[in-house]
Task: structure prediction
Amino acid sequence: MRLDINLATRRYEDAREFWTRWGLAVGLLAVFTLLLLGWTARSWMAAGKDRHNIADLEQMIDGRDHERTQAQSFLDLPANHSTREQSQFLNGLIRRKAFSWTLAFEALEQVMPPNLHVVSLRPEFNDQNLMLLDMKVAGESRSAAVELVHRMEGSARFQNAQLTGEQEQENGSAVVASVVAIYIPQEVSKDSGLDASKESGK
Result:
């Protein structure tokens, strides 16, 4: 009678079976690691270009700010005080002369709810030299003024529309509301790439 006895102190392991089973996984992991390293290097190079472009833009902005500061300092000199005031006055007249009441009312007609009408309209310029329309509108309820503000927010002619106040008439039949919004003339909106034909087709 023959008995097969394994007297080895360690269990037999087939190295070929191990590499067959895990070799493919290790190879795929190595390829993935190389791809990840390549993508990281490429991203780092692209980020370097972006940092360089940002530095150039910041340098240009600093240069413009420096020029603006110098120009402002020159205008603030006592000898140039009258010239500065005259320049601001003339620029204001030019901007007001360029304001078209017809175009402004046409833009308002496109966003005005049917149960609301303009009582008064006063154009002025804010600190950023943007045209600001301060208007009073009257309607049967406050909801009409709120609807006007929503319509102006979706228009290419107006920005930052706000309902600043409201007052109910003594007879209670109407509500007068104050609305303020930045007005963008048609010529400016065309230059900025806004499509005016969409709004006119509403």
